[in-house]
Design goal:
The chain has 240 residues and is of the alpha+beta class. The protein has a single domain, classed as Nucleotidyltransferase, domain 5, CATH 3.30.420. It contains 7 helices and 9 strands; from the N terminus they run H-E-E-E-E-H-H-E-E-H-E-H-E-H-E-H. Helix 4 packs across helix 5. The model has no long low-confidence stretch (mean pLDDT 94).
């Protein structure tokens, strides 16, 4: 028996304790899998994602509600109906986007505020607002990575999956903000693949034929400054 989020960790085979698993779909989460019980993490979710006669695998998890739902919000609330098809182009355009305080569908970890008022800080054209929404996903994921690192050893790499991870510009931003390489398989359906691995009895070799793209962290000081400003604004708004 397993759930969708925890199953996604097994899409790549046996969990890697040095890896942060990021799955970005309608919502998103970042999860660390560890073999020893984690310390109490009041602003993260902890649990067991595998237990049998041989092992117990624990997890520390942070969630982001405003991922795919935030892209839908761009169309329904801002009228940017072509956002999804145009984002690959927009994410490559130079320029400084505004910041987006993203509480779409409620503000999850590590802030935990169900009725947070989403808003842009700074001016921007519609395409820049769309970029700001995507950047907010990277920033929210990083806030959870930072929080989780208080309780388990820091990650050395990130594995990205889920439909929204198909945006190269998002993966590059996650890599630059985190300072970690982001590895993305050519199959985004991590939950189904993880269930397959568990159902197959956790074979020693799994999904070896899949290709993998690596987004190395670039020295992007502009996005690091934006993340620092965004984090300060979120601290002012939430107290966290």
């Amino acid at each position: 028996m397993n759930g969708d989020q925890s199953a996604a960790v097994f899409a790549f085979g046996a969990p890697d304790e040095e890896c942060a698993y990021v799955n970005i779909g309608t919502s998103a989460f970042v999860q660390r899998a560890v073999s020893t019980p984690p310390s109490y993490a009041p602003r993260s979710l902890t649990g067991i994602i595998l237990e049998d006669e041989n092992r117990t695998v624990y997890s520390v998890e942070g969630n982001v509600n405003g991922a795919g739902t935030a892209l839908e919000w761009l169309g329904s609330e801002l009228g940017i109906l072509d956002a999804v098809s145009r984002l690959p182009e927009w994410l490559e355009k130079p320029g400084e986007p505004p910041l987006f305080l993203n509480g779409i569908a409620g503000l999850g970890g590590p802030f935990w505020q169900p009725d947070f008022s989403s808003r842009f800080v700074g001016e921007g054209e519609p395409w820049q607002q769309a970029v700001a929404v995507v950047e907010s996903m990277a920033f929210l994921l990083q806030a959870n990575i930072d929080e989780i690192a208080k309780h388990v050893p820091p990650a050395r790499r990130i594995r990205a999956s889920g439909g929204v991870s198909r945006f190269d510009g998002l993966c590059r931003r996650i890599a630059s903000v985190s300072g970690l390489p982001v590895l993305r398989r050519d199959d985004a359906e991590a939950t189904a693949r993880g269930i397959g691995y568990l159902a197959a009895g956790m074979p020693a070799r799994w999904n070896d034929a899949a290709s993998e793209e690596v987004f190395e962290p670039l020295p992007d000081e502009a996005i690091r400054r934006r993340y620092a400003r965004w984090r300060g604004l979120m601290r002012e708004a939430t107290g966290v």
